[in-house]
Amino acid sequence: MQDIQAKNTTLAPRPLWLAVALALALDMTGFVPAAHADASEAAEIAAVARAHITPIAAVTLAEKHSGGRAYGMGLEVARLGTWYEVQLDVKGQSMVARIDPHSGAFLGIEPAKGDDRIGARTLAGRKIDLVQALRAAETHAHGRALEAGPAGSGVTAHYDVDVVAAGGKLQHLSVNADNATVGVAPQSEQD
């Protein structure tokens, strides 16, 4: 191992320090610039491709462990790790279960908060469940689901499913909750 000697070491230029401080401040406030969102989505796309456990298996495991019915799912990549989040209706309560994408281990369950609560009853009583919707979308796009959830209301209620297709291209699909017909998600629901 070589000894490393510093030569002419100085602190980083003042503008760099200001940029770092600003980035940290924005991160703490929850502000997510578009470039960060794109990087986050790219990390999720890469993670779903590497996952040993499929989204369908993750949803099935979450339903088995919770006794609930799944209405949404997504793959989360964070500093602490990567996991599937599965939103479930468990005896009338919105819950979120976490599944390890590499081992399939059930990591826990807790009450849903914020956006994870949205849509818990939107598709109640419909013929197609989340597993069937994921299977239809993945088959249609020849890929793997990244996230899915209920959209619309009443007779127009459906599943929105984002599928990572060949080449890492993300396809935004809509799955009919009564017959599993797959179409392209309306433009307003793609973002």
Q: What gross morphology would you assign?
A: globular
Main sheet overview = 8 strands, antiparallel
CATH class category = Alpha Beta
For the termini, the CA-CA separation is 51 Å
Strand order of the largest sheet: 4-3-2-1-5-6-7-8
Element pattern in H and E: HHHEEEEHEEEE
Organism: Metallibacterium scheffleri
Protein name: PepSY domain-containing protein
Describe this structure in words.
This protein has 191 residues and is an alpha+beta fold. It has a single domain, classed as Nuclear Transport Factor 2, Chain: A (Roll). Helix content is 30%, strand content 30%. It is built from 4 helices and 8 strands. It has helices at 14-29, 34-50, 55-66, 130-141, and strands at residues 69-78, 81-90, 93-99, 106-111, 144-151, 158-164, 170-176, 182-184. It has an 8-stranded antiparallel β-sheet with strand order 4-3-2-1-5-6-7-8. Strand 5 (144-151) and strand 6 form a beta hairpin. The longest helix is centred in the N-terminal third of the chain and has 17 residues, at 34-50. The chain is globular, with a radius of gyration of 20 Å. Residues 1-12 and 14-37 have low confidence and may be disordered. This is PepSY domain-containing protein.
Protein traits:
disordered N terminus; Nuclear Transport Factor 2, Chain: A; alpha+beta; 8 strands; 4 helices; globular; 8-stranded antiparallel β-sheet; 191 residues
